[in-house]
Amino acid sequence: DQQVKQNSPSLSVQEGRISILNCDYTNSMFDYFLWYKKYPAEGPTFLISISSIKDKNEDGRFTVFLNKSAKHLSLHIVPSQPGDSAVYFCAASAPGGTSYGKLTFGQGTILTVHP
Amino acid sequence: DTAVSQTPKYLVTQMGNDKSIKCEQNLGHDTMYWYKQDSKKFLKIMFSYNNKELIINETVPNRFSPKSPDKAHLNLHINSLELGDSAVYFCASSRKGQSNGVPQYFGPGTRLTVT
Questions:
Q1: Closest-CA residue to B21 (of B31, B32, B30, B34)
Q2: CB–CB of A102 and B56 under 8 A?
Q3: Do A43 and B56 touch (CB under 8 A)?
Q4: In terms of DSSP bridges, do strands B43-50 and B53-57 run parallel, antiparallel, or are they unpaired?
Q5: Is B94 on the interface with A (CB under 8 A)?
Q6: Which of A69, A96, B104, B114 shows the greatest Cβ crowding within 10 Å of its Cβ?
């Protein structure tokens, strides 16, 4: 039962263009969403997060949009740079109790930015 | 000045053996986690500890036993290793409190191969 899904295994973008990575979720209890970037042979690195009470959060070149009614979020990278080439994971968390601190991850999208 | 470190980075062993993976964080965080990334690249939480107390224990075989000697360390001991245990294991940590939306910081991973 995959509660967080990234349906695009890969995305290829030209340098300077926009990269849009998508993520869908099924659990309506999720109230925080995070994006991580992962390079080969390294651990995931936190990029940006958004609370379910917001619909947009921006940090430099990275913007995350949340559409609660559609249970969909997306990460926009503008402008894309070759150094952005990595695997991007979407993750979600639900309120405390037994879910305390538990992140549920999508399967990742490989982003390749061509010079 | 590595934030979250794991040893070893690679571990090759035979079925039936017992092995341990060590994790240390110098971020002053109170909560630590173990995740498993399987062959399909899904990152799934196994355990979390908050200030040496077990918080999350997902449906993990009891051959896996986490040990937290202090809040800066969370080790993973695996008994009677099986082929299906082959995966990359990531340690992570986060600060205390309501962990929703609080980023988790990951170690570089330990690639375990069971032959």
A1: B34
A2: yes
A3: no
A4: antiparallel
A5: yes
A6: B104
Residue A76 near residue A65 (C-beta atoms within 8 A): yes
Min Cα distance B99 → chain A (Å) is 5
For position A102, what pLDDT does the model report? 82
Residue B60 forms contact with A (CB below 8 Å) = no
A61 or B38: which leads in pLDDT? A61
Torsion angle defined by CA atoms of residues A48, A51, A56 and A60, in that order, rounded to the nearest 10 degrees = -20
pLDDT tens sequence across A51-60: 999 999 999 9
- Chain B within 8 Å of A1 (Cβ-Cβ)? no
Distance CA A61, CA B64 (A): 41
Give A-chain residues touching B92 at CB under 8 angstroms. 43
The tens digit of pLDDT for each residue in B44-76 reads: 999 888 877 888 778 788 999 999 999 899 999
Identify which of A73, A33, A110, A54 has the alpha carbon closest to the alpha carbon of residue B101.
Answer: A33
pLDDT tens-place string over residues A101-114: 788 999 999 999 99
Cβ atoms A63, A94 nearer than 8 A: no
B42 interfaces chain A, CB cutoff of 8 Å: yes
